[in-house]
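Hi R.,

Here's the chain you asked about this morning:
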Amino acid sequence: MFKLEPIKYNMKITEDRLIFYYLFDRGFTEKEIDFIKKRCEKEGVKYCLKTFRGEDLQEVKRELREYFEKQKLKKVLSAVRTMFVQYPKNHLSTMNY
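And the predicted structure, written out as tokens:
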């Protein structure tokens, strides 16, 4: 007869995973968490739970989403400018109305 035994995992929760779940539980998306992690590394801020416990995370989330919206708007404006460069104004003036 077979005997069921639990599978033993030797998994440790890393500090990065702990912070990920902490921020994810407070409404941040994966993209936002990845951005925060990269920004911390770039600015030399320690990426740990103590860093985020004293912060007003709702304010951080709002500012971060505003930043992403501005970045999205910049991409759209860049695409529109590219279209104007590709299709000069003189081409439009030769059209018959």
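The mean pLDDT is 84.

Let me know if you need anything else.
M.
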